[in-house]
Amino acid sequence: MTQLPEWANWLARNKKSGKLFAFSVKPFKFDNTWAMHAGKYEEVTDVSNIYSFIKWEDEEPTKVSPSLKSVAIGNAAVDGFKKGLAEPFGFDLVNHPNHYQGLNGLEAREVHENFIPKYGKYGGMVMCDMKDVIKYVLRAPDKNGVEDLKKAKRHLEWAINELEGTTN
């Protein structure tokens, strides 16, 4: 079973060969290949075409999220499907769902841990509403789009009403 190297942070496909490569640092396009000034790189054997969505035409390399680091290439992926697992390629929808991760792997929870305590002086309801505002805004592009933005707006309005002493 082949897995992404532990140090892999980026994936990109070369133009001419069509080969997929893992990089430790963010590569840049140079002629018909991806290059970098320093760091490690290695060809990734994508026997199950798990990464077929990665194309040369992509303007940026693909950031490897924590859940992608455990993606097994080859028999483990096929075995996962045969067993009917909800997350056959190691995607962890419970602990590290993709819709709560930024492009560089920052998770919504880390944002919450750093900013929500600032709202503690306003009370528990404001803290809860602001946590939900952040949650819905951060996940909107990868989950429910406008619906999540509307939910964020509703929670922001509730927080403002709480701070102003009004109810709606």
Low-confidence stretches: 71-90
Number of helices: 4
| Strand neighbour order, sheet with most strands | 6-3-2-7
* Element pattern in H and E: EEEEEEEEHHHH
Hey, roughly how much beta strand do the residues contain?
5-15%
**Rg from alpha-carbon coordinates:** 20 Å
Strands, count: 8
- Which assembly state applies to the chains in this document? single chain
The major beta sheet can be summarized as:
4 strands, antiparallel
How many domain units?
2
Structural class per helix/strand content? alpha+beta
Mean pLDDT: 79
State the end-to-end CA separation.
57 Å
Characterization of this structure:
- The protein is an alpha+beta fold and 168 residues long.
- The chain folds into 2 domains: 2-92, no CATH class; 108-164.
- The chain is 30% helix and 14% strand.
- It is built from 4 helices and 8 strands.
- It has helices at residues 75-82, 108-115, 124-139, 146-164; strands at 2-3, 10-13, 20-23, 28-30, 33-35, 41-44, 62-63, 72-73.
- The chain has a 4-stranded antiparallel sheet, with no helix packed on it. It has a two-stranded antiparallel sheet with strand order 1-8. Strands 4-5 form a two-stranded antiparallel ribbon.
- Helix 2 (108-115) runs antiparallel to helix 3.
- The chain is elongated.
